[in-house]
Amino acid sequence: MPTSVRVQPQGFQVQYPKTSWRVSYVEELSGKFRFVLSGQDFQFEPRDKYRYPTHDDAKRAAFCFLELMKRLERSLFSVGDFS
Fold first, then answer.
1. What does the pLDDT look like over 9-65, one tens digit per residue?
2. Are 7 and 23 in contact (CB under 8 A)?
3. Rounded to an integer, what distance in angstroms lies between the CA atom of residue 3 and that of residue 64?
4. Cα–Cα distance between 24 and 58 in angstroms, integer?
5. Residue 27 pairs with which residues in a beta bridge?
6. Alpha helices in the chain (DSSP H)
7. Are the CB atoms for 23 and 35 separated by under 8 Å?
8. What is the pTM of this model?
9. Angle ∠(31,37,41) on CA atoms, nearest 5
10. How many of the other CB atoms lie within 10 Å of CB of 52?
């Protein structure tokens, strides 16, 4: 009885020090890369249909999104809870 084989994309995950953020990099079968940015209660994956041609391009984009999320997180904490 033949069975179907599904090739899984390869990748790795980076945990950024002193933050709750992780970035998972995935290389697809096409050779292009994508990333998923995850926090404690948050997960973000850009829906770029072209993906990123190299790991360095994906890393640069992930770093930009990570910096944005860290700044948003800091601004939310600086406002405080007024409830």
1. 577 677 777 777 888 888 888 888 888 888 888 787 877 666 888 888 888 888 888
2. no
3. 42
4. 10
5. 10, 33
6. 55-79
7. yes
8. 0.62
9. 145
10. 20
